Each structure stands twice: as structure tokens, then as C-alpha cells.
Amino acid sequence: MVATHTTPATPPPAAAGPRAGHPGRRGLTPQAKGMLALLVTVSIWAAFALSARALSASSLLPADAALLRFGVPLVVLLPALWRRRRALAAVRPGPAVKIVCGAGVPFFLAAMHGGSLTSAAFVGSIVPGMVPLFVSLIMARRGHGLPRGTQAAGLALIAAGVIALVWRYVVPVDTDVLAGSGTLLVASGLWALYTVGLREVALDPVGSIGLLCLPSFAVIGLLVLTGILPTGIAHASGGDILLFLVVQGLGVGLCAGLLYAFAIRTLGAERSSVVGSLSPVAVVLLAVPLLGEAPTAAVLAGVPLITAGVVLANRRPRPRPEVPAHA
User: Fold this and answer.
1) Are the C-beta atoms of residues 310 and 154 closer than 8 Å to each other?
2) Distance of alpha carbon 263 from alpha carbon 258, whole angstroms
3) CA 139 – CA 137 distance, rounded (Å)
4) Which whole-number Å values give the CA distances from 7 to 3, 51, 89, 171, 237, in the listed order?
5) To bridge 16 with a disulfide, which of 20, 140, 222, 228 should be the other Cys (CB 3.0-4.6 Å)?
6) What is the pLDDT at residue 2?
């Protein structure tokens, strides 16, 4: 039976909008939410870079910082992770390995060791700054093709900006700096694997954190209990523990983990990695008031290059208007 009644003569109350004196409410688009999540993540990553350098001067050892990094999110999210246990168990081994290795113990130890040999500027520049190039290479190997046009130009500018930031520390040659830079490049490649892996799992951000932190905390705990990695947390100062608990556990482990996973699902791996390369800019800006570092010529050259590269690499061609088909 086909209904033949006409529309009501009076509109329903919900139709009242701006003309009736009520301002229209328009929330952020998913793209805008993803971009906002990434910008907050960049700020947290900058704090991670500063803390990686500060670890060498603190009473904590790398294993202690890792225990806080992976343990705090588990404690906070334990009830939610228990409800997602079946979804976690159903994750395929390939993406799981990318996530656990890409942002777990191998990445953490590489970033901390590289930071101890170099500086906060190196950690903040090399690790997130080079991720877009590694992600592009991974995607190209999977048949997505190499970046072209403005995206390729943007990636080139990002690489040039990172090189400009760290060049003054490499010339004259310093073996420790070179070894640290190589270790940080390994960490950046691992993070690119994590970025791609997040896109391949059907987990929400909370589940993604659980997939990363559960095995990572177990591995670190095993390495500490067997004496392979030394620990000094029992004799560490309360201030150092609190600092790394907030920055590594709550900041990087919980907040940045949730936000980055959300951004990956919203914007995609390639675009998220490009925006994430703004972290060197945040590190440089934070180092001025926090570490008393004055902007150098390298900073004044590198930061604009990275910023321009991010803008170019994020440009997307406008879709061509569809021509209506005529019968």
C-alpha cells in the first residue's frame, strides 16, 4: 500500500533554527577533529623529546621510564580493555607485530638511547620528522605509488628542514652524535611501521593502546626481572618518578596514544604522519623558555622549511565537479 497523505501544514518544533532566534549548531567535521587530535599529539610528542634528553640526567633508568610508559595506561584503562579482550585476541599477527615493535619496547629503547647520545632537538626532529618519508616508502612497496606533485615537494622540504636543524651538530663529525642519529633513524622507521599498523586493525583507540601496552609491559617486566635491563626505580627521586609518570605514562602513553589512533582512523596514515612532523617546530619553540635555548640560524632555516613542507604535503587536489549525465 502506498501512502498518499501530504506533509503537515505546520513544521515540527525541531525545524526551528536560526530564523527562530536559535543559532544553528554545527559541530567539528571528522577531518577537523582528526587534525585537532594530531596538533595536541604533536605537543605531547615535543614533551616526549624533551623527556628523552632529560632521562640521562635523572635518577631513572630507561627500563624505569618504559615501565611507567606502558604500565600507567594499562592501570587506567584496565576495565575498558577487559571488555575488549575478544577484539584484541582477534587481531591478525602481522598488524599486531607492526604496532608492538613500531611503538613498543624496540622503539622506546631506541629513542631513549638515541636521545642520550644527542639532544632533545635531535629526538624531536629525526623521529617524527622522518616518519612521513618512511611511511611513503612503505606505502609505495604496497603498490600505492610514490608521492607526486605538491606532496613530493612537501616531503622534500620536511627532509631538508630536519637536515638543517641537525646539521650543525654533525659538522664537525662527532661519533656519539652520528651513532645517536642512526639510532633515532631506526626509531623513526619503527614508528612508521606503527603508523601503518594502526590503520590495519579494526580496534578503537582504547583497544589500540591495549594492543601496544599489554605485550610491551610484559616484555619490559621480563627484562627487568631477569636482570637483562637494570632498574633504579626503587631509589629514584619522587620528582623524577612524578615527571615521567605524567609525561610518559599519562601524556605519551595514554593521551597521545588515544589521539594518534583516532587521527589515523580519521585522516589516514600518510596524512597523519605528515602533520606529526610538525613536532620539531614544537620542540624548538618549547626549548626556548624551558631550556633557555636561543633560536640559531639552523632553527630559523629548518623550522620554516618543515612548516612549509607540512602545508604542501597536506594539499589535496580539488575534486572535479561531476557533469550530470543527460538521458
Assistant:
1) yes
2) 9
3) 5
4) 11, 64, 51, 77, 72
5) 20
6) 37
pLDDT (tens digit per residue) in 17-45: 444 444 555 678 888 888 888 888 888 87
DSSP-assigned letter for residue 84: T
Cell numbers 576495565 correspond to 79
What angle do the packed helices 175-199 and 120-139 form, to 10 degrees?
Answer: 50
Cell of 140: 609505495
Angle at 46 between CA 43 and CA 50, to 5 degrees: 145
| 16 pLDDT more than 70 | no
For 255-275, give the secondary structure using H, E and C. Answer: HHHHHHHHHHHHHCHHHHHHH
Would you place residue 120 in the very low, low, confident or very high pLDDT band (cuts 50, 70, 90)?
confident
Cβ proximity of 87 and 202 under 8 Å: yes
Residue 279 near residue 45, CB atoms below 8 Å: yes
**Helices and strands in the chain: count of H runs, count of E runs:** 14, 0
What per-residue confidence (pLDDT) applies to 77?
95
* Closest of 312, 26, 46 to residue 157, by C-alpha: 312
